[in-house]
Amino acid sequence: MDLYLWWHKRNDLLPLVGEERYQVRLAELLSRAAPRDLAALGLGCSRRVDRACRAPEICGQDPEPRPDGRTYRRSGPVLGACSSFIDCYSPHEIRVRFNGDDRHSAVMLLRGGPGRALLWVDGVPVLEGEWLDNGGYWLAERFFVIRIGGPDDHPEQGYTSIGQWLHDIVSLLVYDAELRIPYVLAPGPTENWRDPVVEVRDGTVRVYVDEGAQAASTPDREFPVGAPEAG
Prior knowledge:
By secondary structure, the chain is α+β, with helices and mostly antiparallel strands. It contains five helices and 13 strands.
């Protein structure tokens, strides 16, 4: 109900709290919401991003468990809520992405372009002031991965005025939601990350220059990650 009122009373609240405080509170409330809450709010989803959810009752159901007891990944027209939600109409351009078991969520407010985009993971602001891509994804149900602005002094760096994303060579944010640790990975002069791929294997995060390098098992970068605390 707090989220519903904050969302639908925006025009009344903005003069009282200001744009910045409104956005922060909105992100906090979105971070506490379940998929069914976002469907009821009227955001678009994996099924149809260009309009409000037409069947929020579907998102009121939980997905069927897999044989190992874990929930199925939410995506597309399957029983249960979608894993991602999108706002096409408000001044905030919201993106919300849940991991597979809904324990973690990433909330982005994109209005104003990549230089002013804001990201929260599990209600915590992450990497303020960086250029953010308009997407991101969950890896191994624990790491949120998103492209960020690459180094200006990289010898292969280039820029374009087409679309919102301006950097040819990108850096990466890999956020460990279990330990709340952000890993900011910038390519070196010989690492040409135009379309980098990230994977987690045997407790190690590996960054590849592209899918071909991943297939050849030749990472540009790798580092170990800590184990989550028990409980």
